[in-house]
Each structure stands twice: as C-alpha cells, then as structure tokens.
Specification:
four-stranded antiparallel sheet, single chain, 4 domains
Length: 327
C-alpha cells in the first residue's frame, strides 16, 4: 500500500515537471523534485533512485499507465524531459464508465435525502459531483479547494477508525519545532476549517481533548489501550468558537464590533456566527476568544473595529502594531 501511495505522489510530481514549459528537467532534477515532494509529504527524508524515475516514466508512457506523451530532448551530452503536448496532464484523464456510474448512483442518493433536516450541506456536494460528471473539458463550476493540501489521504482511514472506536498512535510534526510528536488518542471527530482538516480526540497522555491537523500527521498506527468514549456534543462545542480552538478555562464573551457601511451587506449574507445580530453598523455575537477569531477580524482590515471586550481589542491592537513594526 505504501509503495502505491509513493508512486501516485511521484507521478503527480513528475506530471508538474513535464508540463512546465519554463524549466528544463534533467534526470537529476526529476530525482531531486520527487525526493523533495516525498520529504515534504512525510516529514522525513526519502530518496528516489534513478532507476525508479526511469521506471515511472515508462509506466506513465504506457497504455497501462496514463499514455503520457513524454519526450526526451537531447541537449549536448544531457537529456531533459517534458510533455510533447504541454496541455497534457495525467490529472485531466477522463473518468471511466465505472467511475461515472458511481457518481450517478451517488447523485441519485443525494437527490433523495438532501431535503431532510440536517442534510442541507449535501447541496454543495451535489453541485461538485454535477460539475465533475457533466462538464467534460468545459468546466462550468469551480470550488475553492487547496489542491496541494497534505494529509488528505488520512481522512477516510480516520473516519473509519472513529466509527470503529479504535485508539490510535499518531506521529505528527509540531507547529513550534521541527521535531516529531507522538500521541495516543481516542479519535472522536473530524472538522474542516479554513480549507484544512483537523482530528479531535481524547489525549491519553494529558487526559484532555486534543486536535491534530491532518497535514501535520506523519504516520498512524492502531493502539492497544482501552478506548475512551466521548461525552462531548461537538455541535455545541464548535458553536462556542470561531475555528477549532476551544479553551476549556475561558467563558463565552459578548463581542461587539463596528462595521463599515460597505461591508454590512457582505456580513449579512455570510454571517460570522449563528448568534450574530446587526443593529445599524454594530455587529454583536457570543463566542470564546481565540486566535482564529482575531485572524478573522484582522482579515477585514479597516472595515472592522472591535469595541468590546477590551481583551480582544487589545489583542487586535497589539497584532496590528507588530505587523506595522515588520515594515
């Protein structure tokens, strides 16, 4: 399984090299680029051999692979590689009949249940599938996704581990250091925020709720200790905050922010929080203070001015001063 996964990563990396008309990729360049992509993905050094790259090129060219129009161009004593058709990409291969049938079946199921309370988010999923199924090469709909997001391959296994109530040993990269961090977790919940995925679970080491970004995960193994069942209502848990950071020792605060006139229609159409109310140009809502809330406010720039609480106002002011000092 690991070999197939590495191969897929290499194929995608090579695909970018071969379609790049602004750089000549010699064999050493291909080796270095694939090695770097694999290292960034796994968080540790992984070497790729010359023979492996040549085997990958042969497979990508083959009927069993992608029928990729890879050509070799001799320049002096060296050879570089690229697609003869620079518009070609292995990511643009048409879906098979089996894949199309699977999408049709999924669309039929969604059409039956999307009106049921609690399934309204399926409208977006249905739109994505319709865009994939019927747009062919003339794309008529797009979604803001992070195509370079790492760790997304952990999403399905983690979902199944949660359903099975399986304790996990997770090795991940620390945000604060370059060292690896190992934890034992009873996994509970998967949450997407700001185009990233997070796993929430009970830390057996610290006896508290912990979250791990999937793009920081290096490896996942099954643990052998007893699973700790969740007592958390995650809908309520996330209703208390913006983002994913919920400090157990903090209370919900009353937030009051002055809005510029031009941003009010936008905030009304895209609410910051379910509790928000807008009176004239003042928006109020109730959440706990955290870094994500501050970042959201700062993203609106001069269109937002925090009135209260004073702690939030001071935090925003300090971050703005630090930003100015950078210049």
């Amino acid at each position: 399984m690991a070999v197939n996964k590495n191969a897929q990563i290499r194929y995608k990396a090579l695909d970018k090299c071969f379609s790049n008309q602004y750089k000549k990729f010699y064999i050493d360049d291909l080796i270095n680029y694939c090695s770097t992509v694999l290292m960034n993905h796994y968080g540790k050094e992984i070497s790729v051999s010359r023979r492996q790259i040549f085997n990958d090129i042969d497979f990508m060219r083959s009927d069993a692979g992608f029928e990729a129009p890879i050509i070799s161009i001799k320049e002096g004593r060296k050879v570089y590689y690229r697609y003869e058709d620079l518009n070609f990409s292995i990511l643009n291969k048409p879906l098979t009949d089996v894949e199309l049938q699977a999408i049709d079946n999924t669309l039929e199921i969604i059409s039956r249940i999307k009106g049921i309370p609690g399934f309204t988010d399926l409208v977006s999923t249905q739109a994505k599938l319709l865009g994939t199924r019927y747009s062919d090469n003339n794309h008529i709909i797009s979604f803001e996704e992070n195509e370079f997001l790492q760790g997304i391959e952990h999403l399905t296994p983690l979902f199944n581990y949660i359903k099975s109530k399986q304790v996990l040993k997770i090795e991940s990269l620390s945000f604060k250091t370059n060292e690896n961090y190992r934890s034992v977790i009873s996994p509970y919940y998967l949450k997407q925020f700001n185009k990233r995925w997070f796993l929430f679970g009970w830390s057996h080491e610290f006896n508290n709720l912990q979250n791990i970004a999937l793009d920081r995960i290096i490896s996942i193994e099954m643990g052998d200790v007893n699973y700790v069942d969740s007592t958390i209502d995650f809908e309520e848990y996330f209703d208390e905050i913006i983002g994913v950071t919920n400090f157990a020792d903090k209370n919900i605060a009353n937030i009051s922010i002055q809005l510029s006139d031009n941003i009010i229609p936008y905030i009304k159409s895209k609410p910051i929080h379910g509790s928000q109310k807008i009176n004239d140009n003042i928006i109020t809502f109730q959440v706990k203070l955290n870094y994500e809330l501050e970042s959201l406010i700062l993203s609106y720039g001069e269109n937002m001015k925090v009135i209260e609480p004073i702690e939030l106002k001071n935090n925003i002011l300090n971050r703005l001063k630090n930003t100015i000092n950078q210049y």
